[in-house]
Amino acid sequence: MNLAVISTIVLGVLLLVMTLLFIFRIVMTWYPNIDVNQFPYKLAYLPTEPFLIPTRKIIPPLGGIDITPIVWLGIFTLLREVLLGQQGIITMAMR
C-alpha cells in the first residue's frame, strides 16, 4: 500500500467517525437533560463541540432546538461524498 491509499483510508475513517458523532449529537439534542460529562455522551461531546460553538453564534436555536449538529452532519457528509465518493476528487485522482 502506498501513502496515497493509506491517507485516503484514514481520511475516510475520520469523516465517517465525525459523521457518526454528529448523528449521536443530534440524538442527544432530543434529551436536553443529558449530563455530557458522563461516559458515553462525553465521547460525542468533546470532539464535536469545537465545531458547534462558533456555528451556534451564526445559527441560533430554532424553537429551542439546536440545529447546528444537523448543519455539521450535512457538511461532513458532503465532504465525504465530494472527496471520497464514486465521483469524488480523491477517488478520481487515484485512478
From TrEMBL:
Keyword Disulfide bond: no
Keywords: Membrane, Transmembrane, Transmembrane helix
Name of one Pfam family that matches: CCB3_YggT
Presence of keyword Membrane: yes
One GO location term (cellular component): membrane
TM segment ranges: 6-24
InterPro entries membership: CCB3/YggT (IPR003425)
Protein family (similarity comment): Belongs to the YggT family.
Descriptive protein name: YggT family protein
Annotated source species: Cyanobacterium stanieri (strain ATCC 29140 / PCC 7202)
Taxonomic classification: Bacteria, Bacillati, Cyanobacteriota, Cyanophyceae, Oscillatoriophycideae
